[in-house]
Amino acid sequence: MSPPPSTSIRRRRFLLLTVLAFLVILFFFHSSDSSSWRLPAILRDSSSNLSRANIVSLVKFKQQGPNNNQLSSKKVDEIYGLIHLVTGGDEEHQHVLVNKGDFDPTEPVGMEVYAPGEVMDWEEEMERLNDVFPVVVFSKSFCPFSARAKRLLEEYELVPQPMVIEVDLRDDATQIKALLTRLTSQSTFPNIIVQGKSIGGSDDLKRLHESGALKKLLEKAGVEVEGDV
């Protein structure tokens, strides 16, 4: 007598999951160095049941890496790590770079430095920052050039409004200045960032405004210009 249809379906499902698990395990070990030749706990535990959830967890473990809190993604410019840090809204974020003893802002920095203890998908975070904070102004509170640039941007009545970071009022001012120098090739303030790209300082902003290019540049970045400029 042939087995009932439900038994046959369960058998096929089991075989499919087994094959899928085997392929995922091969993927996990592929290109791994000797120190990475181990299974995550979810599969080392013999009491764990094989399921689609287990397989998904294994794939995430491979993407994330055993010693990294950042999900793997395509290359995202380091400037987005800095923007993530300074727009966090938490005063404790100012101490992240200061308290990192081996931090050298003149050399490329791993993205995890900007988000300690956070599991980040930097592609998604880049998109979020471009949407929520498309214009970031690194300013000095006492600098007349910074004041001039901020006044000009105010005339544009931008939506969303520029995120202004008064660098000199932060504990990590020295580190931010060094990072901006390396990442944007500009060491002076203000330093105006539009969707991860520096458009320069006060004089550059004025030139873009006078040529009519600034409005177009901002609108192309998805910023609404409501001022009569």
UniProtKB/TrEMBL annotation:
One of its GO terms (molecular function) is glutathione disulfide oxidoreductase activity. One of its GO terms (cellular component) is cis-Golgi network. One of its GO terms (biological process) is cellular response to oxidative stress. Residues 135-199 form the Glutaredoxin domain. It comes from the Eukaryota. Gene3D superfamilies: Glutaredoxin. This is Thioredoxin-like protein. It comes from Dendrothele bispora (strain CBS 962.96).
